[in-house]
Structures are given as C-alpha cells and as structure tokens.
Amino acid sequence: MTNLDEDLIALRREIHSRPELAGEERETAGLVAEQLRAAGLEVTTGVGGHGIVAVLDASAGPTVGYRADMDAVDAQTNVLPFPLSDRTFDDGFASRVPGVAHLCGHDLHTAIGIGVARTLAQNTESLRGRLVFVFQPAEENLQGARAMLETGLVQKHAPSEFYAVHCAPFPAGTITVSPGYGLPGLDHMRIILPAGDDAAAAAVAAEVDKLGTVVFPRSIDEYNSRFRAVLDPEIAASIQESICVAQWTEQPEGAQPIPNVILRVWPQELHTELRQQVEQIAAAVGGHVEFPGDPFPAMVNSAELSTAAGRYLSAALGPESVAWCGASWPFNCEDFALFLHQAPGAQFYLGVADAESGINGAPHTPDFAADERAIGHGVRAMSGLLTDRLATLSADVADGRRA
After folding, report:
1. CA gap 51, 339 in Å, rounded
2. 101 bridge partner residues
C-alpha cells in the first residue's frame, strides 16, 4: 500500500464519519477543495450548490472529464429493507450524524476522484491535454448534475469524453464495463381518482403493479444474484428490457389521497408507451394522471468508449480484473446520465466486496461496507485510463480523425 493509498483511506474515513445529505455537502466540499488546491489544480467552488469543478491543465490538447459524487443517504428511508447484520466494518469512523450514512459508497467515489487528481497532477508530463474534475453534490435526489450544468461552467470546459466509477458488490480489485448499457430512467406520476372510491384506488394499484417486470430484491443473496446476472451473457440477453414499479399514497391535508407511481425504466424509449398505459388504467375508473415533470433519462454508457476502456483496463490490469456487463441493473437511477448528454463516456462498476471477511459491497443496503483496498485500485485504473484517453484523442486530432 502506497502513502497515497493510506492518505486516501484516511480521507475516506473522515468523510464517512461526517456524512452530509444531498444539497448539504458543505464540509465534504471544503475537504475536497482543500485537497485539490494543494495538488495544484485550478478550483472553482459553489458550482450548482456545493459542487466543485477543478481543472488540471497539463498541455494544449483535448479535454476529458471525470466526475465523483459526494452526498450521503438518509439511512432510515433510502436503503433496501434488508435485515441488519451484527457485523460492523467502520469501528472508529462510523457516522456521527444520526440517521445519515454513506451507504452508497460516495465517500469512496470522492476519495478516488481526489486520488486520481493528485496522481495525475504529479505526472503532468504524461498528459496530452486537460482534465476537468467534477465533484458533484445531490446525486441521491437526482438534482446535483442538473444544477451544476445549469451554471454552464462544465460546458465551458467542453470535455470530449466523461468518466466515473460507482461501487458495486463485485470483488475488490475488479472493474466492470457496460458497453451500451447503464442504469434506467425514472418517471413520476400522480393518479387523480374519484373522491372516496377506495375500490378504484385498489384496482389502479393492482393494474400498475402488473406493468413491472422486475421487483426489488428481498434479501442480500437475491440482491447479489441479480447483480451477477448482468455479467452472465445468457441471462443478460434475456433481460434487455426492465420496468421496476414503486407506489405510495400522498395524503394531502383535508383532501383526497393521491396514488403516486415511480417507474424505473430501461430502455428509456419505453417511457411514452408506459405513460399511455398508466393513463388508460386511470381512465378506466374515471381518473386521470398528472406528470410532475419529464422522465429523468437513463444513463447510457457509450458502447464504443466502454469497449475501448475495457480493452485498455484488461491490458493494464490483467483480463481477470475486468468483467463485462450485458444488461442494465434495473433498480437504481444515476444523474451522471446528464453529463453523458454533454459528452459520450462511461461509468464503471468498481468492485468493493470481500466475501472472505463478510464485506458485502452492496450499495443502499443497511450494512453496506467496502474493502478500502478498492480505493487504490480505482485510482490506478482511472489514472491510467484518463491518461490513455487523452493520448488517444490527441493522436486522433494529429491524424485528422477528429476536428
């Protein structure tokens, strides 16, 4: 383990012990900005809330972006309802904030992003262009990426490609690429029904449930099985479409209860058809549907760039360290999707599990834990990949393959 690895583990533990919810990442952002300035990057804070944009301007040439998210989760409501084990892996650095915890791995994402920036800032002679590091707030509520982009600062730097990692329950020391796949889009609907018609509400709920093709895992074993399924070519080929349904009832004071529906949908082209189906279900009992906003887009990884990254990582880390994903994981959304609307790129699954010691590496489970050796692995993988992508883009420009 290098000194940098040890520094980043200490940083991750500091962030882990002081988690901040979406939109409240003031202390975390302060730590990030301090680290990046010390590394010599040009740092802008307060971007779309507590977001940070940091530039490493090594030489003239193309620009590549890298994003890390910083927020924690509400540990009471934003985790899967699995039994909590009696094992703990954060003795001495557990959350000091009641009800808030880093159960999605964003503390690791932040530490890795800083590690990549520090590593490349010390090796600028190997870089053929510029890197833009985006440390994003408010990913859990799908608001931070949009808020950052609305400032125009990210677009001003005009990255040609964008990359990110996310913790996953695969073995530490591995990384998974998903060419052409990613995470589903999300659609929110409010169903307005005739006053006092409980039978209509029950009928609508039953019909909406039938739209679902997958249900949330009910145990950690089922969760891990579903995650492994996207790596099995035969199984993955059979789950090219997925619809996950969540429902709850809104209770306005003194007014008729309003059923609410969330659909997580892959591919996103299904949204139009599903909206029509829900409208038909509501109309059949004399109701109608309100749509608070447009569907949130799916996160779709570039097939070309994901494949290129997988080949590079296989050569650099060894083929046994790289897995290939052939379907969308259907239960989470990700606002990195909006950065991929600005430039093609990919998010990779970073393995953080260690079955031997009981570390499950399963985000949004009540006893999520991560093998901290994954931090150094992620730093080395992403530092190498970003260096390679700048070199490739520079060569393409020199050869006239890109404007």
Report:
1. 14
2. 73
Q: What are phi and psi of 185, to 5 degrees?
A: -85, 170
Closest CA to 136 of 14, 48, 8, 56: 48
Token pair in block for residue 128:
């053929």
302: left (phi over 0), alpha (psi -120 to 50) or beta: beta
CA–CA distance, 95 with 198 (Å, rounded to integer): 43
Q: Please choose, from the candidates 389, 391, 309, 388, the residue with its C-alpha nearest in 3D space to the C-alpha of residue 350.
A: 309
Rounded to whole angstroms, the Cα distance separating 88 from 99 reads 16
Q: What would the two tokens of residue 253 be?
A: 């004071």
What the chain holds in terms of domains, given with CATH numbers, is 3-179+299-398 (3.40.630.10), 185-290 (3.30.70)
Residues of the chain with pLDDT under 70: 401-403
Distance CA 250, CA 363 (A): 27
Q: Helix 198-209 to helix 271-283 angle, to the nearest 10 degrees?
A: 150
Cβ(224)–Cβ(320) below 8 Å = no
* 273-286: pLDDT as tens digits: 999 999 999 999 99
The whole model's pTM is what?
Answer: 0.96
Q: Quick check: 49 and 137 in contact, CB under 8 A? A: yes
* C-alpha span between 189 and 293 (Å, rounded): 9
Distance of alpha carbon 31 from alpha carbon 19, whole angstroms: 12
pLDDT per residue over 306-336, tens digit each? 999 999 999 999 999 999 999 999 999 999 9
278 closest CA partner among 217, 193, 198: 193
Find, among 16, 14, 22, 19, the residue nearest to 100 by Cα.
19
Tell me how far apart the alpha carbons of residues 262 and 291 are, in angstroms, rounded to a whole number.
Answer: 11
